[in-house]
Amino acid sequence: MKRASIITWSIVGGVVVVGGIVAAVAVAASDGGPDAPPSVSPTTSATPTASSTPAATPSASAEPGTDPSEPDSGPSAEPTPAVPVGPGQQTTEVPAAPAPGTTPVSVTPFVTFDQWTAESSTLTVGATVPEVVEQGGVCTLTATRGAATVSGSFTALPSASSTDCGSMALSSPSFSAGTWTVSVAYASPTAAGTLSDYEVTIP
User: How many structural domains is the chain composed of?
Assistant: First the structure.
């Protein structure tokens, strides 16, 4: 019985010893040994790290029927309507010369009215060229009194049965009270003529 007790204790001791060895090995493994690198615990950063890849910016959706690659030119400006050029508009154009070997038809302009506007010192004379229906002609109005002369050239356009000089207006501080001699000359590549004996009285 005494021997059995010893064996029992030895076995118990062996178990204890083995348990101690296992415990020691477990501790050694957890330490990593002398050559193992130190264990680094992951640290959660309090500050979020900025991503190196920029976030994609949502693009504006293109309207149906448009090419998104083309820049938007904005609302198109409406074209400005051209001001129609009528007879009697002052001009600096010179009529074309007659064709070689041709002689312009002789014409005589006809004065239709005259009007004096004192507020703007403007003399307005209307004239037409009978029996000529054409484009490209120019009417020249000249008013003369003594040494004073006021003159201007104006566009002429065809009407139903004549060429219209329109309402030709001359504005000048040279106008003075009295009788002025007015002449109207017409010139084009095919016709030419002058009315020179018309008189206007400025009050």
Answer: 1
Interval 56-115: pLDDT, tens: 554 545 555 555 555 555 555 555 544 446 788 999 888 888 889 999 999 999 999 999
Q: Determine, yes or no, domain membership for 39.
A: no
94 contacts: CB under 8 Å, gap ≥ 6: 138
Query: Maximum CA pair distance of the chain?
Result: 173
Distance CA 201, CA 179 (A): 4
User: Do the beta carbons of residue 139 and residue 185 sit within 8 Å?
Assistant: yes
Would 91 be classed as within a structural domain?
no
**CATH code for the domain of 134:** 2.60.40.10
C-alpha–C-alpha distance, residues 51 and 56, integer Å: 12
Cross-strand partners of 81: none
The beta strand positions in the chain, using DSSP E, are 105-106, 110-117, 122-130, 138-145, 148-155, 157-158, 162-171, 178-187, 191-202
Domain that holds residue 140: 105-202
